[in-house]
Design brief:
- By secondary structure, the protein is α+β, with helices and mostly antiparallel strands.
- The protein folds into 2 domains: 3-80, S16 Ribosomal Protein, Chain: A (2-Layer Sandwich), CATH 3.30.1320.10; 91-144.
- Helices cover 44% and strands 22% of the residues.
- Strand 1 (3-12) and strand 2 form a beta hairpin.
Amino acid sequence: MSVSLRLSRGGSKKRPYYKIVVANSRAPRDGKYLEQVGTYNPLLAKDDENRVRLVEDRVKYWLGVGAQATDRVARLLDKAGVAERTPTNNPKKAEPGKKAKERAEERAAKAAAAAEAAAEATEVKQEEAEAVIAEAVEEATPEA
């Protein structure tokens, strides 16, 4: 039997409240658990001492017996100073996916083509304007 320390959700809709429980890893999230070892109230301020409450000796016992803490519970235990958690490093976290990169390249190509077309159009208009000005100057100058 695999045992895990995890959160079991309680509270009402939009007002979450969690119990930190020791449960069989195959049991449902809010189902039967072996022991409740703490509570977590995310609605309280981060510096409030009642935000996370733990029975530290029981948590240490279960970790010593081989219970695995979920990522969120491991973070709470690390912050409380009960168990060390190695920070994860994902350098590709903010990098867009393959399809998003392709879409960005397509948009950039379309924008470049549109800018090129606009530049050509302004060149043609400028040439036409110069021709009209030259004609006006020729008409305005008196013939000698």
